């Protein structure tokens, strides 16, 4: 039941790095603290996502949104017209947003949404920080619009769920990129025409996969952080002049080394993946030798991401 005690329990769960499912007006979300990389990694593991797609950061209102993202004039207009509501805006991320790299797949942009649901609102106010929340279903399944759907999919894989009854909208939020000319990335609960009437012109659309849980197609590499350095996979040992991205016990090496998880933990490795790739780029690495990472659990998504990073650049 969605009373004050259950909302406080959910906020405490998020603060402790747990996973809490909650109702929104579109679909139920599976929430984690956006600032906690390991909590975000556990969220991908619970969903069984084969790839790290960037997540939507949920906040209680415009003031909280401004702490994580930068708004231009169009974004201001749209937020004023449609928030709270089923509209997600992709915006430049503030450098001091305090959001884990894994939550945004290493991007400098962030998807922000202010849900129009009393339980979601109460939870976001009690938690007092951004909450990432994909739809609360196993990867490849349909989005859940009531608490029973969530339990059918995720029982035993999440810490708690707040039951707020059925979701009124029933489809996910409309996603609009405001990085330049506003572009429709995902049709959803807010109609294109309503957005166009506020902007005063028609909207461009970008092709995106219909199923947001599917791994991104090769043409969508821009949706993930792409390292500048070359990447050599399944390296037994780094060569002279390379930098090393290690996993587990690393070989002795004088060059720049970052370790995804010295103790060989895939949750920790996922949480570090994008930050370490960025750090290796920042250190001026020309080629990154990557030790092999097991392919079970989150290792599937980590290997998916590493394979994309190693793909020849256009
Ligand atoms: O209605 C909704 O939006 C629900 C409820 C729970 O709020 N959430 C939801 O999240 O549908 P999810 O993770 O299932 O879908 C998020 C979509 C993905 O397609 C992802 O690629 C896109 O948002 N996305 C997130 N951040 C992005 C970014 N920085 N740039 C482009 N696309 C982004
Ligand atoms: Mg989804």
What does this structure look like?
By secondary structure, the chain is an alpha/beta fold. It folds into 2 domains: 4-205, Alpha-Beta Complex (DHBP synthase); 230-310, Rossmann fold, CATH 3.40.50. Helices cover 30% and strands 16% of the residues. The protein has 9 helices and 14 strands. It has helices at 4-15, 37-47, 62-66, 73-82, 118-127, 147-154, 192-199, 266-282, 299-310; strands at residues 20-22, 29-33, 56-58, 87-92, 109-113, 131-132, 160-161, 174-177, 183-186, 204-205, 230-232, 243-246, 257-259, 287-290. Strands 7-1-2-6-3-5-4-8-9-10 form a 10-stranded mixed sheet, with helices on both faces. A 4-stranded parallel sheet has the order 11-14-12-13, covered by helices on one side. Strand 1 (20-22) and strand 2 form a beta hairpin. Helix 1 (4-15) packs across helix 5 (118-127) and helix 2 (37-47) packs across helix 8 (266-282). Mean pLDDT is 92; it is low at 215-221. Bound molecules: threonylcarbamoyladenylate and magnesium ion. The site of threonylcarbamoyladenylate has 27 residues, from strand 4, strand 5 and strand 9.
């Amino acid at each position: 039941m969605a009373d004050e005690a259950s909302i406080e329990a959910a906020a405490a769960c998020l603060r402790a790095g747990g996973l809490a499912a909650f109702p929104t007006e579109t679909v139920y979300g599976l929430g984690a603290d956006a600032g906690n990389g390991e909590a975000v990694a556990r969220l991908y593991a619970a969903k069984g996502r084969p790839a790290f797609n960037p997540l939507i950061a949920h906040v209680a209102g415009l003031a909280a949104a401004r702490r994580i993202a930068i708004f231009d004039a169009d974004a201001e207009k749209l937020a004023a017209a449609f928030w709270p509501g089923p509209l997600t805006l992709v915006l430049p991320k503030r450098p001091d947003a305090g959001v884990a790299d894994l939550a945004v797949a290493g991007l400098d942009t962030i998807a922000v949404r202010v849900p129009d649901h009393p339980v979601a609102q109460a939870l976001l106010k009690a938690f007092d920080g951004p909450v990432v929340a994909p739809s609360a279903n196993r990867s490849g399944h349909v989005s859940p619009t009531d608490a029973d759907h969530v339990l059918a999919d995720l029982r035993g894989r999440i810490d708690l769920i707040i039951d707020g009854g059925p979701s009124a909208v029933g489809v996910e939020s409309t996603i609009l990129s405001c990085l330049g000319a506003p572009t429709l990335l995902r049709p959803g609960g807010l109609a294109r025409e309503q957005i166009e009437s506020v902007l005063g012109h028609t909207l461009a659309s970008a092709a995106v996969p219909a199923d947001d849980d599917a791994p991104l197609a090769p043409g969508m590499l821009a949706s993930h952080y792409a390292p500048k350095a070359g990447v050599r996979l399944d390296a037994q040992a780094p060569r002279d002049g390379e930098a090393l991205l290690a996993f587990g016990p690393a070989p002795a090496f004088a060059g720049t080394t970052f370790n995804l998880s010295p103790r060989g933990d895939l949750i920790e490795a996922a949480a570090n993946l994008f930050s370490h790739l960025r750090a290796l780029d920042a250190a001026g690495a020309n080629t990154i030798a990557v030790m092999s990472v097991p392919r079970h659990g989150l290792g599937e998504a980590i290997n998916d991401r590493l394979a994309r990073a190693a793909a020849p650049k256009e």
